[in-house]
Amino acid sequence: MSGRITPGGVSLLARAVAYGAGRRVGTGPVRLFLVLGRHRRLFTGWLHFAGRLMPGGLLPRRETELVILRVAHLCGSAYEVAHHTRLGRAAGLGEADLRRVAEGPAADGWSARELALLRAVDMLHAERDLDDAAWAELGRHLDERERIELCLLAGHYEMLATVIRTLRIDPDPPRRRSARAAAASAVRAGWAARRRGRGPARRPPAG
């Protein structure tokens, strides 16, 4: 996939967010931010809104990532699947969860609350609406504010999947480690091995 808008030429805020997010998930700078950041005024408002949904929402982070990943699978957004698989692991999703979310509510093993969330996401994707039964089922697990948030969260990531596809945003590059960082990591690994009685008796440098 070849991007329609060249990443870069963005504000310090967008660069900081892109590089910080990349460090968190183990990639290079996140291209979504480097592309959207080219519309500087819009980017700032969008970033504030997006942050209120994730990671600053009312729903537990694990559930937020389940919702986002389900939307990404339904929309066929490989970019979002890759990005939020990493974030999902950090939020407590196990490998079984990550496999099952592609199957959705039909998979075995979900709690009643998770099942209600996933069914709602599937219905929102297919119908752009929730019927009264689905709304009532959500109400057994979520209060009014959480239900509002769920609708906004699912709709937001539907929108992002469309934007990513339309702008042809390429997958984020693997994170490149500097020679200094690699050497420091090797020294730390050697010192750890030595403490376990298997490595050379050399103390790592300070600083």
Automatic annotation (TrEMBL):
PANTHER family: 4-CARBOXYMUCONOLACTONE DECARBOXYLASE FAMILY PROTEIN (AFU_ORTHOLOGUE AFUA_6G11590), CARBOXYMUCONOLACTONE DECARBOXYLASE-LIKE DOMAIN-CONTAINING PROTEIN. Residues 173-207 are annotated as: Disordered. It comes from Actinoallomurus acaciae. This is Carboxymuconolactone decarboxylase family protein. SUPFAM superfamilies: AhpD-like. Coiled coil: none annotated. Residues 42-122 form the Carboxymuconolactone decarboxylase-like domain. Residues 180-192 have a biased composition (Low complexity). InterPro entries: AhpD-like, CMD-like.
